[in-house]
Design brief:
Blueprint (H helix, E strand, L loop, with lengths): L1 H22 L3 H19 L5 H21 L11 H28 L4 H20 L3 H22 L3 H27 L4
């Protein structure tokens, strides 16, 4: 019973956190939400992976958040969202979550992993994809790519626990954060590469 409540809490946080990042126009709160998202990924993955492998993903994710936060000014997200845009983005996020909840039994037939991994992974993956497609600010696109990659990690963790792949995923997180932050900082300052 307690395990079910914990899983439902993780799924609820997995819906709330990337949805907030999708509608937020504050970089610091978006990065704090991204850090919470990496904590959700860690708590989910630690159920099937040993602690050191799970900790690598947590630490690399938090390092990516730190890189993005240190290389970009808080006002690098310039667009204030209107009320109709916020409602549209929330509706899109809830529509994706409904779609995932509806299709998760069919996906479970293809992927022999627990339901919580399918739900959390696909929620992160799809909302990250939505954010990458709907955003015009470079920082929000980077955060969307990191969210998308986190969803892939959750689904992949239940299938395979490889130290080499974990290292590659950590390197990809840090590379996306570093290169994306440099390009975003240059885009906001008007410099050319």
């Amino acid at each position: 019973m307690l395990i079910n409540v914990f899983v439902y809490l993780l799924i609820a946080i997995a819906i709330i956190v990337p949805s907030y990042v999708l509608i937020s126009s504050n970089l610091r709160l978006s990065l704090a939400s991204l850090a919470v998202q990496y904590l959700v990924v860690f708590v989910t993955i630690i159920q099937v992976w040993p602690l050191p492998l799970s900790a690598v993903l947590l630490v690399s994710g938090w390092m990516a958040v730190a890189v993005i936060g240190s290389m970009n000014s808080p006002d690098s997200i310039s667009q204030e969202r209107g009320r109709s845009e916020i409602i549209f983005r929330l509706f899109s996020s809830l529509l994706i979550c409904t779609f995932i909840f509806t299709l998760s039994p069919q996906i479970k037939l293809w992927l022999p992993i627990p339901d919580s991994f399918i739900l959390i992974g696909l929620i992160f993956f799809c909302i990250g994809l939505l954010q990458t497609g709907m955003s015009s600010e470079p920082i929000k696109i980077i955060i969307g790519l990191l969210t998308l990659l986190s969803g892939f990690e959750v689904v992949y963790a239940a299938l395979e626990g490889s130290a080499l792949v974990t290292g590659f995923l950590a390197a990809i997180h840090l590379s996306i954060a570093t290169i994306g932050s440099i390009l975003a900082a240059q885009a906001t300052s008007g410099e050319m590469l």
